[in-house]
Amino acid sequence: MFVAFEGIDGTGKTTLISLVKKEIEDRGFRVFATSEPTGRIELKEELKKSREISAAISLFFRFTEDRFVHQREISEHLGKGEIVLCDRYIMSSMAYQGAILEKYFSGKDKTLQWMLAVSEIIDVRPDITFYIDVEPEVAMKRIAGRGSLTGFEEKEYLSGVRNFYNSIDFKGKITLDGSGTLQQSLSDIMERLSPHLTR
Questions:
Q1: Which of 19, 30, 75, 90 is deepest in the core (most CB within 10 A)?
Q2: What separation, in Å, do the N-terminal and C-terminal C-alpha atoms of the chain show?
Q3: Which domains can be identified in the chain, with CATH numbers?
Q4: pLDDT at 155
């Protein structure tokens, strides 16, 4: 089973994945945790901080190229009977770059069509995608406590990213309220995952 975790910065995804991994392993399953972007690509700070159309196009292609290679690694672990947990996948690229590209395409529909067409080279898709939904104001307060930033943290920008996330209707997408505690989110995730944890 392949499970992706999505959401704007500050949702607690990374911590949740480590908690979910332990819960699943405690039940006797083998788990492979991974994330995107992988360590294969290096992105300049000015590219991540840019809100220009050209930068969004460049990032979308870079992330898709990285994912094209990454999917092989994911497939190998799935082939070994492991459960794969991934911190960000296709939906992240669509939400983060789509929030900028929709100005060029004059709307979300055409933007999604273009991104879906580019992403057709990605054959390995999540069985379940947990989208952790958090208001940007809440996310920004959490981000403020971090020691380092990724370059994507701006309230107005994250609002656009969140709107794009909510407009994406992927098969297997499960939206969860992430405004509560990590334990609450963990319980919500495990409640929905448990029926799929069969041998």
A1: 90
A2: 11
A3: 2-196 (3.40.50.300)
A4: 82
